[in-house]
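Researcher: Going back to the complex we discussed earlier. I've cleaned up the inputs and rechecked each line, so this should be the final set. Can you rerun the prediction on the complete assembly and write out the structure?
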Amino acid sequence: MASPQPRIGVVTYPGSQDDRDALWALAALDAEAVPVWHEERELPDVDAVVLPGGFSYGDYLRCGAIARFSPATAAVREFAEAGGFVLGICNGFQVLCEAGLLPGALLRNASLRFVCRDVPLTVERDDLPFTTRCTAGGRLVLPVKHGDGRYLPPPDLDPAQVVLRYVDNPNGSVDGIAGVCNEAGNVMGLMPHPEHAVDPLLGSDDGALLLASLVDAARERVLAAI
Amino acid sequence: MKATVLVRPKPGILDPQGEAVGSALGHLGFEVSDTRVGKVIDLEVEATDATAAAKAEVEQMCERLLANPLIESYEVEIVG
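Model: Rerun complete. Updated structure for the full complex:
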């Protein structure tokens, strides 16, 4: 039997910027990438969801604070609570933190400067639906581009929830945390942009390791459902 | 009822904006320390004329949207 093509939704909020790159990258990694408009109250039939980067609702009040109340976010919450895989990138990470689907908060960079460069990261977990193609202890190089990426964990964060750390902390994040997951491990957020790093022509294709892991996991869900 | 909400970074939370503002004040010759930058949200509550009810409603707004309790504290003033 031919291996099934998983369907991965990408939510577009007003002000999302990296939704098209995420759709393109997922399609390049052999998923069927499905755009999801922020007003949709129900998700289409998808096997995983990506919340992309950008400046949803102008980042007014706090980054991600208003996107948290959009109809599509409510649908994503239901999907996540049922065990669905959800990956938040940059602004998507901020939305997941504001929505309480991930622990912690993202604040203004300690330098007060917008940072835009490729950064090396250490992989802490290689057993998640987002990291199975990575190696714990190994390195990835991914671009960051954000002004509000300083991660502040809650006091009781389980260190096992840290998925990625910066090698050279670009924003003042506590313990260099660049990406975290929820306790169940089916929701992950990160500030760096894997969707901008899926082709060596773009400087790095390390992002494909994360996104292809998600495509693999979504495909397994399809196979399990057959 | 008009209300004013003050949202502040919680004590202990690094506030680089406050540090930058404090340092700029220092350059102007003002001797300051512990400068912190928060925000003010003014709004009018339409549903009620009762101060206590208005305050309770605005506090709910703070809990649900206006402040992030992990990083911010808030204060509500009903200004009549």
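Model: Worth noting: Chain B has one domain: 2-78.
Researcher: Good, that matches what I expected from the previous run.
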